[in-house]
Amino acid sequence: MPGGPPWRWRRWMGRGRMPKPRFIHTPLRGYAYIPSPAVPPGMDYEEILPDELEALRLVYVEKKSQSEAAQIMGVSRGTVWRLLDSGRSKLVKALISGKAIVVVPPQPEHSSPE
Questions:
Q1: Which CATH number belongs to the domain containing residue 18 in this structure?
Q2: Which of 16, 71, 94, 105 could cross-link to 46 by cystine, CB 3.0-4.6 Å?
Q3: What is the pTM of this model?
Q4: HEC profile of the chain
Q5: CA atoms of 57 and 55, how far apart (whole Å)
Q6: How many domains does the chain have?
Q7: Is residue 74 included in any domain, yes or no?
Q8: Over the stretch 28-56, which tens digit does the pLDDT of each residue have?
């Protein structure tokens, strides 16, 4: 195990049964994620695409079901599932590795020349 043995963490607010300790295997460092218009030069980052962010917002912030989110976005439920999976994966990788999170702005649609 890199980083030594796991450490125990337990949160108990004093009411009810004391919870079992949780073993944390990931070495944690203190980070602050602050929205910024630019990533500092040389810093690694994960890019979140606009459709991934919208799917994450609808399901986790607005508390919509995947089917409802799919209907709002105009895509299939399977597409929403893939967007959520991809977005969550990128967010967790950024949190664990201390990378910046960059939201890619939507690109304007190009109209075909007539």
A1: 1.10.10
A2: 94
A3: 0.77
A4: CCCCCCEEECCCCCCCCCCCCEEECCCCCCCCCCCCCCCCCCCCEEEECHHHHHHHHHHHHCCCCHHHHHHHHCCCHHHHHHHHHHHHHHHHHHHHHCCEEEECCCCCCCCCCC
A5: 5
A6: 1
A7: yes
A8: 777 788 888 888 898 899 999 999 999 99
